[in-house]
Amino acid sequence: MSAQTAFALDFQKPRGFVNDFADIIETSAENQLEASLENFEKETSHEIAVVTVNSLQEVTVEEFAVALFAEWGIGKKGVDNGVLILVAPNERVARIEVGYGISGALTDAKSSEIMQNILIPAFKEWDFSGGITKAANITMQIAKGEIVDVPKTAKVKFTFEQLIMLIFFAY
C-alpha cells in the first residue's frame, strides 16, 4: 500500500474496544463483549479491538487492517501488544491483525485457525454476533496462554436453504 493510499483512507474514530460501524453485532452481545475486552485489557494490558466496517474503501482487507491498526494505535506504545479483529460484511472478508508484542502467543497460524474454524463458519450461518464473540473470547484465551489450540467447528448438516446461503456467502 502506498503512503498516498493510507492517507486517502477515512477512518471513523474508535468509541471503545468494540466498534460496530456496520451494525452487525446484536446490542446485548456488543455490550457484553465490550465489558469482557475492557476487563481483559485491565488484567493483561493487551488491547483487542473489534471493528466492523461497511467498506474497505477499495483497498485489500490486509491494507485496511494494517492502516487502521496504525491509525488507532491499537496496543500499548513500545509494547505493540494489540489485536484487531476486522470484519467487512459487504465485501465478505475478515482479518485478524496482531501486533509484534503478542505475536508469540497469537501467531499467524492461530489467527488463521480462528478465521477458518470460528469466524467463517459462524458468518456462513449469518451469526455475526456469535462468531465475533467466540473469536474474541478465544483470542483472549490464547493471548493469556490459557489455551493453545483453536477448537474445530463441529460438522453440521445443512438444509437446502442453508446450503444455498452458504454457497452465496462463500463467493
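[next item in queue]
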Amino acid sequence: MNTLVIMAKHPVAGMVKTRLAASLGEAAAAGLAAAFLEDLLDRLHPCADRHVLATWPDNTAATTYFEELSADRFELWNQPEGSLGERLARVTTEHLGPDPHQRVVVIGSDSPTLPKETIEAAFVGLQQADVVVAPADDGGYVLIGLRREVPGLFEPIEWSSPRVFAQTREHLQSSCTRFIELPGWYDIDTLDDLRRLDKELGPEHPLGRAGGATRNGLDDLPHGWDFRSIDR
C-alpha cells in the first residue's frame, strides 16, 4: 500500500512562516501557509492509496481546522513532541507497520507546487530501493520515502541547516542502504522563494493551474510586496 503523509502546522499568525512574516506580516504569512496546505491536499490526493495529515499542535482549535480542511480525504495523525527527526521517525515507523509491502512517502507543506510526478516517482522507486529522497534547493529535502525502517536515518541531523540533505545521503551511503535520489524542488521560506513561486504560478507558465489557493493568496498580498528587500 502507498501512503502519503503531509506534515502540517496549524497556520496561526505568529506560529508559522516566521521568516516570511518578518517581511510580509504575521497574518499574510499565515494566510499563505493555509493556501499552501489547501492546494497540496487538493492536488496530491489522487497520488496514493492512503492519505495522512500529520498535524501539530494537538489542541481543539487545530483539530477542528484540520478536520474541516481534510473533509475526510486525509486521516489525521497528531505529531508527537520532539525534534523534527524524532517526529519523522515516529510517523514513518507507525505507518510502515509490519507489512513488507507498505511504502510511505513524507512531504512538508512548504512546497505547494511540488509536482505530482515526483510523488509518483517516489512510490515507483520504493519498489526497488529502501529509501527515496528529493533534495530542496536550500540544502534540506522536500520529500523522503521509505519501505522499511532505517536505524539512525533521522538523527543526528542538523535540522534547519543547509547540511540536512548531505548528512542524510552520507548516512544512507555509510549504512549501505539502497536509495534513489529524485529530482529536487524548493521550499517557500524567504521573499526570494516567494518571488520564484509568483513567477511559477504566472499565466505564462504551464504549472499555472497547479495552485489556485496559493495564486489567490499571492494576489491578496499588499501591493509592492515583491519589491521589498531580499531576506538576509
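[queue empty]
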